[in-house]
Amino acid sequence: MQPGEGTAVERRAWLALAVSTLAALLSVIDVSIVNVAFPSIRRDLGASEAGLSWVLSGYSVAVGAFLLLAGRLADQRGRRRMFMIGVSIFVVGSLCSGLAPSTEFLIAARVLQGIGSSVIGPTSLSMVLPEFPFERRSMVLGIWGASAALGAAIGPSAGAILLDVLSWRWIFLVNVPLGALILVLTPRFVRESRDPDATGRFDMVGVPAGTFGVALVLVAIVQGGGWGYASAPTLVAALLGAALLVYVVVRSARHPSPLLDLRLFRIRSFWSAAAGQVFFTTSFISIILFNTLLLQELWKWSPLAAGFGVVPGPALAAVLGGPVGSIADRVGHRNLLVFGCTTAGLSPAWLWLRVGAESDYASDVLPALLFLGIGVSCTFATFSSLGLREVPSARFGMASATLRTTSTLGFAVGVAVGVAVFDAALPQLLVAFDRVWAFMAVTMFVGAAFCAIACPGRMAMASPQSQVES
Length: 470
What we know:
The protein contains 18 helices and no strands. The chain is mainly alpha-helical. It folds into 2 domains: 393 residues, MFS general substrate transporter like domains (Growth Hormone, Chain: A, Up-down Bundle); 56 residues.
């Protein structure tokens, strides 16, 4: 019997899932934990605002740029093998970040971290899904997604604690022993898997074109605020990146070993999940960012207090993620996504209607955080679950990477648009928050409407392996 067949699940599969979720947890924490360290990094390294921006942006651009290549390599060369390579790169990048003597060195180390995270993302999921029967995969994705929510929950507070007790360097150095533990456990508990029909060949033109195309689009989005969205550097980066991506799509339709598997977009559950999560991630990342800014900038909370103040929402999502994932197939992915996006949209809507300069945390902020927690538990992993529902396991790596790429684009757009909307209303701070909350709520509600229209309903329980591949 092959891994994943039948209904019994081996103990080894659960241990493999634990290893996978620990790696995903680390990569998510590293996105949110850095924000609280910016004042200390500026003081110790003499970093400029542009330099600090690239400490965050360099990581995000590297993650997005290499996802498609990582997914293709995982299916061809082995998902466990690529996962361990990704963790190793992430650990080396973390060590270099923690020891960085200058801002330029730190930016380069963060890019290295981002490359490692781009490999961890699709491989951490695709290497464990074949271990589970088809009817358990929504639950597995729920647990895996809960680790991402947990990372968002503990990132700011863990960073604030490390800053208070040690120094900003430990927000990176703490990854080293944890990464080493993952490298020891992975060969013991995770089986190797790959696409049996993979040829090992690459599109030597499409791969760099796609990598640079995604990178340039992300650079235009994340740096547009500083450069000016109508400035020559922003427009050149955006247009060149978009042209490269169009070229990759056209080339992928004809090449025998394309970077982007266009057959995936013939599957309604896949393309609707990929598109729907753009709305969700665009709003979600803005909510996370501006919830922290609300407590620090409007109410003048300390970074440590603000870090713990935003924990309830993501923590609730982490608790609910597994149970919600286990009922996704019975309730229906579409119903769960519509409910989740609508509930998550109530979070900024509540803040928009309730928060003022003298508002109360318990009555005006905490309910919004809980709305977000419930919404995230119903959506974050459900998009992945729906997207992979009808994808044959041989293409899990490529499919996971493509879903992560659209998610990353949503994150980048959310931060860029949210900051632009916020800055346009300054110095009227409360007006700025009101406008950005309105942007978040409308985007999330539009996402709910899109899911209601585009996502397919419940399907009969049958393994996608039995389907005839396009």
